[in-house]
């Protein structure tokens, strides 16, 4: 990226200042202008509304050369078809700038492989699992075919966290199946009312808190995202495996290499180090797995992952 | 000249200036105005509690009476922010308890509030009047009991959409008999199981609050109690019912109907949990006065919805499920010519196939029939560019447009093209657009349109969209008024972010999750921009245990004069100087 004209340079200048300001001001990283230090106050508003003097000749743009061949890191998340990479040079502050040009035509900027954008969608981007075989080349001209690749042909989409963007309380309460329109006659008879009681098994989106022994960070799981205990168990495993490993690493004092986090298994049959229990709507602590699934989700208020050694005397045989 | 006016005169003049922006402008005129203004400012709004510290706030504004704080980023509403991230109000309450003995109002949104904090509030501020906890969590009904018991002049207690742990007990009876000052009580987020004692405590409280104007009940309040409550509070302007289902015998129905007709001031209705259609006519008598109707907790079908809505000719705001269907929205467009705000929520968001006939047609109809429509939130399963063109043409006065096509990356279902042109028309025609949420199949082109035209846009939400950094670049370089940008699952990486780093200081915050921003870039940004807090939220362990080019899970960047925060959990990584030195 070389030889940028003055006009183009002006277009790409960073601007600092309140929106709508007409004067040409620019901000360079490496040189917070001395006018800043003249501020006699610390008020946030003044800081943000003040325009920074332009310092000509001083550089300090974040440098993004895309034309060097230094591929020091294997980029597992960008496919081989992309020339584009976000490699950042560790430049000193005063280096000569070289601006990244953003041409108007979007085609000339190499696009990210579709695979990497799909990777974004997964709940946990486990980059070590990306294999070359999974990558599909993507080009803008085949937008339509690309569309059909992502169209609703999927029969069972993986549940995406936080999508669609609806508040949890809204999901929990929209429990009843839709009621039939009322007959034209007015008064509600008792049996008509009784037949319209909300059917609990249709509840969608049931987030309950889950805590794990030894992990201070609690999480929430959506019980409606699963239809059986095994799926719930593996979700819990995924949820806490990384956290446990991180804790182990930090308590071992220092950087461990990327050791594979050990899976959390045997949650349901007390064969593993941890066991999954829940608190029901009466406040009792119960083992997960003993009652039919639909009964479980309608009574579970909260989950816990306890050390199996501490789970004693929890019996659900009545 | 400023010094020829006595301070008292200036103060008096300033007392008429209410808006925060105007106040800030006043404080910039000269040093003496700055001094005068800061002593007489009574109200402050802090959009990000980590942008500033309590100490800084107290030092500059020693005489505040009303403080509003927001904590977690918006995407926390959709469980994208891990628990324990932050947003604790306790240090604020601690500091304010000492500095502002005359504090009257505290409004919090998306913050973590402890029972101890609530107790401190109730005991530190003798004249405390207003407590609004919007989408907050971390407290129980014990905390509410302290507020009830100790705040002698409480006017407003509003718990909208907070997550409150119900420990049973009877906190409502902690309001002393002498408390008659309530104007607004919103407990709609509380549970569905209440004792008879709680219910009668509620009745007594309502009965002795002649100034009560806004009452939003929770699901636990049964329908047969509602009539009693209404008769005790005929002056209500806003009502949220409890459960709207029961064995409604004819005499109970007429009693309820009569109670409603006694509430001649009612302007807003909500609640309606479990609503049975045959009970709805009980509210017909007050429908013509309603300006706001929230049926988003009611599973009522289209024909019954239409019957109800057609009684409400003066409706300005409607929140409803997609049970209303296109036909219901067409009827709405016919009857409610004053409609300003429409929100349509999905009844079955996880179903693959649509369960109702709600399409782009419904929204088009409303855009045609309702000339004052300016705020839209619409969940549906299909859309077309043409529909967006039509909506944009009909309603150039839109200020908030949030469209959520439920399946990510859904194209125009007729042409199979991306929806770039459609949204482009929206930003081009609706010049006053302040808030926009995108969905459907979108390329970088839509961001080019947005950057070019959306000059008044303040908040933008993007999901599963774009092809490259160019998209993000267009937004950051073009949207002059942008304050909040939230992005998830888009192929935006380092380049656009770093090239527009200075822009970030003009915004409140930027959220990016499941994108392609590397840890390297985050470090660089954190090092180079001392007035930005760059938070990497990553639950996979320390970012430096992976190659630096790996994308981070989540990234939250916000401007701050407070420096790095001290209450970060283990999964939040930032660049403080020490760390920066160690890693460089």
From TrEMBL, chain A:
Q: Which GO terms describe its cellular component?
A: nucleus
> Where, subcellularly, is it found?
Nucleus
Q: Which UniProt keywords apply?
A: Auxin signaling pathway, Nucleus, Repressor, Transcription, Transcription regulation
**Superkingdom per UniProt:** Eukaryota
Please name the Gene3D superfamilies in this protein's record: Phosphatidylinositol 3-kinase Catalytic Subunit, Chain A, domain 1 (3.10.20.90)
Q: Does the keyword Repressor apply?
A: yes
Which family, according to the similarity comment? Belongs to the Aux/IAA family.
Q: Which residues form the signal peptide?
A: none
Task: Show the PROSITE patterns listed in the entry.
Answer: PB1
Please state every residue range assigned to the domain named PB1: 205-313
Function noted in UniProt: Aux/IAA proteins are short-lived transcriptional factors that function as repressors of early auxin response genes at low auxin concentrations. Repression is thought to result from the interaction with auxin response factors (ARFs), proteins that bind to the auxin-responsive promoter element (AuxRE). Formation of heterodimers with ARF proteins may alter their ability to modulate early auxin response genes expression.
Assembly and partners are described as: Homodimers and heterodimers.
**Protein's UniProt keywords contain Cell membrane:** no
**Biased amino acid composition, Low complexity:** 174-187
Q: Could you mention a single GO BP entry for this protein?
A: regulation of DNA-templated transcription
Name under which the protein is recorded: Auxin-responsive protein
Q: Where is the composition biased (Polar residues)?
A: 139-154
Using the UniProt annotation, give all residue ranges assigned to the region (Disordered): 1-31, 132-196
Automatic annotation (TrEMBL), chain B:
MF terms (GO), sorted A to Z: auxin binding
* F-box domain segment(s): 5-46
List localization entries. Answer: Nucleus
> Which PANTHER family does the entry mention?
F-BOX/TPR REPEAT PROTEIN POF3 (PTHR16134), PROTEIN TRANSPORT INHIBITOR RESPONSE 1 (PTHR16134:SF66)
Major localization listed first in the record, in broad terms: nucleus
Instruction: Give the matching InterPro entries.
Output: COI1_F-box (IPR041567), F-box-like_dom_sf (IPR036047), F-box_dom (IPR001810), Leu-rich_rpt (IPR001611), Leu-rich_rpt_Cys-con_subtyp (IPR006553), LRR_dom_sf (IPR032675), Transp_inhibit (IPR041101)
Pfam (any one): Transp_inhibit
Which UniProt keywords are present, listed alphabetically? Auxin signaling pathway, Developmental protein, Nucleus, Ubl conjugation pathway
Name of the protein in question: COI1, F-box
Give the UniProt record's GO annotations in the biological process aspect.
Answer: auxin-activated signaling pathway; pollen maturation; SCF-dependent proteasomal ubiquitin-dependent protein catabolic process
May I have one GO cellular component term?
A: SCF ubiquitin ligase complex
The answer to whether UniProt assigns keyword Secreted to this entry is no
Record's Gene3D superfamilies? 1.20.1280.50, Ribonuclease Inhibitor
Give the pathway.
Protein modification; protein ubiquitination
């Amino acid at each position: 990226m070389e030889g940028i004209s003055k006009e183009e340079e002006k277009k790409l200048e960073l601007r600092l200042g309140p929106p709508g300001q007409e004067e040409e001001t620019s901000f360079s990283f490496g040189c917070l202008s001395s006018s800043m230090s003249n501020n006699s106050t610390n008020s946030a508003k003044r800081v943000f509304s003040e325009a920074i003097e332009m310092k000509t000749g001083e550089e300090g743009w974040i440098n993004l050369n895309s034309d060097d061949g230094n591929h020091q890191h294997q980029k597992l998340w960008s496919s081989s078809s992309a020339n584009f990479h976000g490699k950042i040079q560790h430049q000193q502050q005063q280096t000569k700038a070289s601006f990244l040009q953003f041409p108007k035509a979007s085609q000339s900027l190499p696009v990210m492989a579709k695979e990497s954008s799909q990777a974004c969608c997964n709940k946990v981007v486990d980059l070590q699992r990306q294999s070359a075989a999974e990558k599909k080349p993507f080009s803008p001209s085949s937008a339509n075919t690309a569309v059909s690749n992502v169209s609703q042909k999927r029969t069972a989409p993986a549940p995406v966290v936080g999508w669609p963007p609806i508040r949890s309380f809204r999901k929990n309460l929209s429990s009843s199946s839709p009621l039939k329109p009322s007959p034209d006659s007015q008064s509600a008879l008792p049996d008509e009312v009784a037949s319209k009681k909300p059917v609990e098994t249709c509840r969608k989106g049931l987030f309950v808190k889950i805590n794990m022994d030894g992990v201070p960070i609690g999480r929430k799981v959506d019980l409606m995202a699963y239809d059986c205990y095994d799926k719930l168990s593996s979700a819990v495993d995924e949820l806490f495996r990384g956290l446990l490993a991180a804790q182990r690493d930090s308590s071992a004092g220092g950087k461990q290499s990327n050791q594979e986090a050990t899976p959390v298994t045997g949650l349901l049959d007390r064969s593993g180090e941890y066991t999954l229990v829940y608190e029901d709507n009466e406040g009792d602590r119960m083992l997960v797995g003993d009652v039919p699934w639909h009964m479980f989700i309608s009574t579970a208020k909260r989950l816990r992952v306890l050390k199996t050694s501490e789970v004693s005397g929890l019996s659900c045989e009545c | 000249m400023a010094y020829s006016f006595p301070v008292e005169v200036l103060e008096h003049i300033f007392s008429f200036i209410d808006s925060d922006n105007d106040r800030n402008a006043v404080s910039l005129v000269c040093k003496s105005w700055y001094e005068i203004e800061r002593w007489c400012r009574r109200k402050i709004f802090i959009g990000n509690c980590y942008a500033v510290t309590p100490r800084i706030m107290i030092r500059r504004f020693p005489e505040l009476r009303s403080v509003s704080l927001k904590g977690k980023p918006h995407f926390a509403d959709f469980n994208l922010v891990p628990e324990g991230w932050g947003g604790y109000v306790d240090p604020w309450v601690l500091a304010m308890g000492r500095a502002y003995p005359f504090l009257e109002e505290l409004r919090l949104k998306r913050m973590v509030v402890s029972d101890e904090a609530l107790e401190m509030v109730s005991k530190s501020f003798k004249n405390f009047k207003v407590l609004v906890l919007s989408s907050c969590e971390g407290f129980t009904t014990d905390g509410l009991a302290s507020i009830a018991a100790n705040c002698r002049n409480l006017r407003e207690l509003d718990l909208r959409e907070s997550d409150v742990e119900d420990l049973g007990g009877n906190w409502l009876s902690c309001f002393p008999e002498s408390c008659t000052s309530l104007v607004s009580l919103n407990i709609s987020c509380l549970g569905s199981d209440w004792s008879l004692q709680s219910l009668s405590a509620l009745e007594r409280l309502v009965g002795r609050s002649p100034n009560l104007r806004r009452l939003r009940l929770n699901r636990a309040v049964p329908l047969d109690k509602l009539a009693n409550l209404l008769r005790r509070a005929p002056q209500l302007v806003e009502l949220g019912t409890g459960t709207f289902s029961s064995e409604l015998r004819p005499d109970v129905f007429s009693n309820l109907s009569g109670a409603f007709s006694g509430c001649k001031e009612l302007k807003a209705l909500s609640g309606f949990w479990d609503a049975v259609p045959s009970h709805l006519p009980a509210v017909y008598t007050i429908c013509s006065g309603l300006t706001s109707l929230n049926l988003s907790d009611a599973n009522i079908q289209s024909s019954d919805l239409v019957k109800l809505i057609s009684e409400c000719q003066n409706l300005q705001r409607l929140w409803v499920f997609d049970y209303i269907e296109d036909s219901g929205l067409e009827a709405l467009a016919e009857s409610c010519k004053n409609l300003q705000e429409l929100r349509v929520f999905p009844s079955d968001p996880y179903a693959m196939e649509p369960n109702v006939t709600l399409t782009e047609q419904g929204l088009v109809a409303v855009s045609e029939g309702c000339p004052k429509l300016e705020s839209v939130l619409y969940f549906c399963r299909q859309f077309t560019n043409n529909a967006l063109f039509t909506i944009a043409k009909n309603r150039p006065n839109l200020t908030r447009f949030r469209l959520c096509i439920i399946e990510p990356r859904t194209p125009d279902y007729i042409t199979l093209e991306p929806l770039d042109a459609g949204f482009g028309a929206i930003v081009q025609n609706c010049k006053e657009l302040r808030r926009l949420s995108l969905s459907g199949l979108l390329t970088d082109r839509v961001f080019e349109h947005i950057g070019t035209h959306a000059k008044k846009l303040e908040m933008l939400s993007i999901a599963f969209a774009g092809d490259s950094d160019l998209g993000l670049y267009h937004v950051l370089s073009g949207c002059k008024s942008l304050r909040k940008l939230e992005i998830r699952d888009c192929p935006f990486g380092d380049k656009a972010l770093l090239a527009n780093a200075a822009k970030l200081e003009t915004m409140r915050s930027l959220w990016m999750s499941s994108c392609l921003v590397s840890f390297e870039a985050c470090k660089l940004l954190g090092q180079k921009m001392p007035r930005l807090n760059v938070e990497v939220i990553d639950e996979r362990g320390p970012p430096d245990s992976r190659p630096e080019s790996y994308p981070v899970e989540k990234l939250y960047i916000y401007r701050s004069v407070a420096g790095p925060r001290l209450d970060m959990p283990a999964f939040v990584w930032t660049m403080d100087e020490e760390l920066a030195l160690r890693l460089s």
